[in-house]
Amino acid sequence: MRTYWSASLLVGAAIVFVSATARAQDPTQAGTAKAAATVEVSVGTAVADHAITGAAESFPKGTAKLFCLSKVTDAADTEIEHVWYKGDAEQGRVKLKVGGSPWRTYSSKTLGTDASGDWRCDVVQDGKVLQSVKFKVE
After folding, report:
1. For the residues of the chain, what is the DSSP string, one character each?
2. pTM here?
3. pLDDT for 59-95, tens place per residue?
């Protein structure tokens, strides 16, 4: 009788383990979080032929406008944002469509007379910063 109960407990434990393992591997119960996009980002004075031109880490005082270009891979039919900062103060936010992979998209920032300082443009998807590019306006 004792062997019967031991065997029953062992079989019961095995059934519970297999059932739990099957539920953990069931794709219908898996999370639906999408993978983050991969982004290459650059800043410059213009965009030509789907590429940034005049790229630099520092731009002279009097530069009227800068462009931030993102090359997005591993994502399609989604949206990213370019968030422009001077120091820690947000200066602009631009929503951009990503229609395929790879996909290039860009935004621009018109600079005022008080543009001197440290800047950055963050590439954001679903509230997460994917990439950031830092630069200076003299």
Report:
1. -HHHHHHHHHHHHHHHHHHHHHHHH-GGGS--PPPPPEEEEEEESEEETTEEES--SEE-TT--EEEEEEEEES--SEEEEEEEEETTEEEEEEEEEE-SSSEEEEEEEE--TT--EEEEEEEEETTEEEEEEEEEE-
2. 0.75
3. 999 999 999 999 999 999 999 999 999 999 999 999 9
